[in-house]
Amino acid sequence: MSLDTDVFDLGSEHEQVVFANDPATGLRAIVAIHSTALGPALGGTRFHPYASTSDALADVLDLSRGMSYKAALAGLDLGGGKAVIIGDPATLKSEALLRAYGRFVQSLSGRYLTACDVGTYSEDMDHVARECAYVTGRTVAHGGAGDSSVLTAYGVFRGMLAAAESAWGRTADGGVLEGRTVGVAGVGKVGRHLVGHLVEAGARVVVTDVWQPAVDRVRDEHPSVLAVDSTEALVASALDVYAPCALGHALTDEVVEVLSARVVCGAANNQLAHPGVEKALADRGIVYAPDYCVNAGGLIQVADELEGFSFDRAQQRATTIYDTTRAVLDLAASDGVPPATAADRLAERRMREVGRLRGIWLA
Asked: Which of 59, 211, 305, 307 is the most exposed, having the fewest neighbouring CB atoms within 10 Å of its CB?
């Protein structure tokens, strides 16, 4: 990003983008609030060693926009926001940094509610919450919902059932994934739980991850799971379903070209590498379950914490991701558009029709 870049052009859809800097702790963070039309913006904090501030800004803008659409499609009275902390969490993360970050989020007066994301955990949110009232995803011991990856994975599984039924038809016993080969790229917090659901459903599961201990743990828990050395090897293998569960932009032109899977359904955010990939998937007859439609379980889980957390209630709400996915795929078929376009239309309709008359959320 050059000095003459117009930041208003970069975040032209966004209500607010705020930078935080605390040299004493090493905190460098960006919060992006995309929309508060439906309520305060809720979204996790990603702690990642971005190559540049420009990369971090591009990521937080993309992610916060996705959160607005995710909340709208999930039927929540919440807007979309996201935060990124720039740096390697393995070396930079500390109680002091997290508490400094908490004071920064507190200064936004409730327009942004934070939670966990890549590189942050419920225990981290406990530290943030010592300085901030606008935190979800805390540990159960501190009155929170705990690890949101549990219901994120469950929601992806429910969405995958709907997408598989769209591809192969319903089965009398609901076992549409039984005997199907599912490739899971990324078996960290969410992917690991997803593998458990797939194994229980009778699927043949193949996994990969850049961190070998994550693969080893999954294979220890589920000895029937196979592993390959790379994502490239996974997408080139014979699959029925491909589940991208790592970082974004997993669906490139090259991946779509070699992919044998009939269904793509995973937990990663912003899976489409660029506009047009959704059409390439549709042209190849691949059923794509839009990422922000199926991975909303974690958002549903931490949002439930705002009411006084009940896991059973949150899980029941996450179960409806199956119905939402079917509605998206049905609209895509009736309108003759890719599922990603159909999901956008449904989310935008709700933001437009239900959005608060005052336009932005004021705490």
From this structure: 307
Q: How would you classify the pairing of strands 79-86 and 27-35?
A: antiparallel
Give the total residue count for the chain: 363
DSSP state of 141: G
Query: What's 251's DSSP letter?
Result: B
- The catalytic site residues sit at 82
Residue 356 predicted with pLDDT over 70: no
Neighbour-count burial for 288-324, b at 16+ CB within 10 Å, e otherwise: bbbbbbbbbbbbbbbbbbbeebeeeebbebbebbbeb
Q: Is 146 exposed, middle or buried (0-12, 13-18, 19+ CB in 10 A)?
A: buried
**How far is Cα 80 from Cα 32, in angstroms, rounded to an integer?**
9
* pLDDT score of 1 more than 50: no
Quick one: which H or E segment has residue 322? helix 321-335
Domains and CATH numbers, the chain: 7-142 (3.40.50.10860), 149-342 (3.40.50.720)
State the Cα–Cα distance between residues 348 and 341, nearest whole angstrom.
Answer: 10
Q: Which of 65, 158, 110 is nearest to 351 (CA)?
A: 65
Task: State how beta strands 241-244 and 181-185 pair.
Answer: parallel
The two three-digit tokens of residue 262, written as one number: 């009939």
Residues 164 and 180 sit within 8 Å (Cβ to Cβ) = yes
Q: In whole angstroms, how far apart are CA 85 and each of 1, 52, 82, 192, 330?
A: 18, 12, 10, 24, 38
CA 227 to chain centroid: 24
Helix (H, G, I), strand (E, B) or coil at 205: strand
233-248 pLDDT tens trace: 999 999 999 999 998 8
| 339 neighbors 280 (Cβ within 8 angstroms) | no
Tell whether the model's pLDDT for residue 6 goes beyond 70: no
The pTM of this model reads 0.90
Paired tokens of 257: 């070209």
Detail the DSSP E strand segments found in the chain.
16-22, 27-35, 41-42, 45-48, 79-86, 112-113, 181-185, 204-208, 226-227, 241-244, 263-264, 287-288
